[in-house]
Amino acid sequence: MRKAMMAAALLAAMGGANAARAAEPSLTETITAQDRKVFDAYNACDLETFGAAFAPDVEFYHDEGGVTWERQSVIDNTRKYICGKVRRELIPGTLRIYPIKDFGAVEEGEHRFCQKDQGCAGIAKFVIVWKREGETWIATRVLSYGHRTATAAER
């Protein structure tokens, strides 16, 4: 019993420590604005703006599509599979931002993908690692995973 109580106290303390590391409002606003800028460009097929958000050696891990190892392939894949066909929508309330000391931030959330003329049928989780270079933020790693069909309520 005593060990269980100590373990519970330790877990509670760890949860508090994690909560303390959540991003400050200014970082949250900055990364949220980056997300909006990148995916507004994605939705509009503005590949110049979209591509500028990624490091030349970005690593993009997609549970269904595999791994992409550099920016130009990310742009080419977006042109081929997304432009004029798919729109991304961030699911409200799912975005979380965490600082990375002396580097940048981690963004995580969920989004839905809407096929042109077919509605929003797919949902996935994502993580983006952002590197701060002066006043510029560059995506260095992207994970897109947990792709699934949206329930009727989620559409």
Draw up the topology in text.
Blueprint: H1 2-20, H2 25-44, H3 47-52, E1 54-62, E2 66-68, H4 71-81, E3 86-90, E4 96-100, E5 104-115, E6 119-133, E7 136-149
Parallel strand pairs: 1-7
Antiparallel strand pairs: 1-2, 3-5, 4-5, 5-6, 6-7
Would you write up a description of this structure?
The chain is an alpha+beta fold and 155 residues long. It has one domain (25-154): Roll (Nuclear Transport Factor 2, Chain: A), CATH 3.10.450. It has four helices and seven strands. Strands 1, 2, 3, 4, 5, 6 and 7 form a seven-stranded mixed beta sheet that branches. The longest helix has 20 residues, at 25-44. The protein is globular. 15% of the residues are buried.
- Under the CATH scheme, the architecture is Roll
Q: How many distinct helices?
A: 4
Dominant shape: globular
Beta-strand content estimate: 35-45%
Overall structural domain count? 1
The ordered string of helix (H) and strand (E) elements is HHHEEHEEEEE
Radius of gyration: 18 Å
> Mean pLDDT, nearest integer?
87
Let me know the largest β-sheet.
7 strands, mixed
Contiguous runs where pLDDT drops below 50 for at least 5 residues: 1-20
In whole angstroms, the N-to-C terminal distance is 46 Å
Number of strands: 7
The CATH topology is given as Nuclear Transport Factor 2, Chain: A
CATH class: Alpha Beta
Give the structural class: alpha+beta
Please give the share of residues in helix.
Answer: 25-40%
